[in-house]
Amino acid sequence: MAAPSVAKVDGKHMGKQSTFHPGAAPYGNFINYYTFNPPIRRLQFIPTDMLDRILDAIKVANHDAVATVLDVGCNTGDLTIALYEHLLKGGVPEVVKQTSEHACEETSSEKPPEEGHQVDTDDSEKIKPDQCDCVTNSPETKCESKVSGSKRLFMLGCDIDQVLIQRATEANPYPDNVMFQAIDIMDSTSSNKVCANFLDAHHASHIFDLTTCFSITMWIHLHQGDSGLLTFLEQVSKRTRYLIIEPQPWKCYKSAVRRVKKLGQPMQWQSLSELQIREDVVDRIVKHLVTECNMEIVQRLGETDWERQLLFLRNSMNTV
User: Fold this and answer.
1) What strand order describes the sheet that includes 67-72?
2) How far apart are CA 40 and CA 133, in angstroms?
3) Are 222 and 28 contacting, i.e. CB atoms less than 8 angstroms apart?
4) Helix (H), strand (E), coil (C) string for the chain
């Protein structure tokens, strides 16, 4: 997943004017990310009735209000779209369904490699998803996916990489319900404006009902340092009722450094030695969310094949 940063990205050259290598994406903006980490690897841990549970928890009468979701670091939007379909399976009403067909890759029994091991375009192209990216997950090589739209569920996917956002927008099957926007989430002025405009456009609350942060904390930490990581957690907590977060453990940091060195690419973030939050980074993230951001752990949803925890938290100040 591509993480926000103060630096701007044009999709080809990032920071210094050097040849971009797909295995050395400095913001996690891997151009083929979902080929080696398909959406199902996260969705399998997220209950399909989560949207119902959230709305019930905030005492909204049976879907009479609009539900909004923010996906931070959405890359090309594959997981954003899959999550939208996944949440709709929970029973959100007023759904208009159409049928579309799309191709999916054959099943693979390989355990997915970590991001740090994706060093060559040729190697990554050999990696096939073990399941179709759609929510139906048919074992067939061809599968059908119900293209659904709802007047009650709207999602905003954001990423710093404008090229990835363009691809997400072009492939978006739900333009009335899902929007993709290139923003730097660490730029509070611009990101707050984009989020506020999105919520106003859908007559929603001033905060999101659910925010998702899949594998982006490391990239923010590497570029923004300890204080930047903690600031991000505070900012994202303020603008949501519920949060799903997948923080990367310290071993992912070391893999990222090894990958860049192996490729002979310039290091575009600060040295790991400058970080004070290190081996216990996941615990520190959870502790900060709980002690400084008014978040409460609702459920530990599971652990991915890359040994990353998926945590579901509630903001005690924004829910009743």
Assistant:
1) 178-182, 153-159, 67-72, 208-214, 240-246, 309-315, 295-303
2) 6
3) no
4) CCCCCCCCECCCCECCCCCCCHHHCCCCCCCCHHHHCCCHHHHCCCCCCHHHHHHHHCCCHHHCCCEEEEEECCCCCHHHHHHHHHHHCCCCCCEEEEEEEEECCCCCCCCCCCHHHCCCHHHHHCCCCCCCCCCCCCCCCEEEEEEEEECCEEEEEEECCHHHHHHHHHHCCCCCCEEEEECCCCCHHHHHHHHHHHHHHCCCCCCEEEEEEECCHHHHHHHHHHHHHHHHHHHHHHCEEEEEEECCCHHHHHHHHHHHHHCCCCCCCCCHHHCCCCCCHHHHHHHHHHHHCCEEEEEEEEECCCCCEEEEEEECCCCC
Q: Residues for the chain: how many in total?
A: 320
CA angle 201, 172, 114 (to 5 degrees): 115
d(CA 313, CA 317): 12
User: Do strands 309-315 and 295-303 pair parallel, antiparallel, or not at all (unpaired)?
Assistant: antiparallel
| Amino acid, single-letter form, for residue 166 | Q
In whole angstroms, give the CA distance from residue 285 to residue 214: 14
Residue 18 to residue 253: CA distance in whole angstroms: 22
At residue 230, the pLDDT reads 98
Tell me the pTM. 0.76
Tens digit of each residue's pLDDT (9 = 90 or more) over 263-310: 777 777 778 889 999 999 999 999 999 999 999 999 999 998 888 999
AA identity, residue 204: A
Distance CA 99, CA 214 (A): 29
Q: Which of 311, 148, 127 is nearest to 237 (CA)?
A: 311
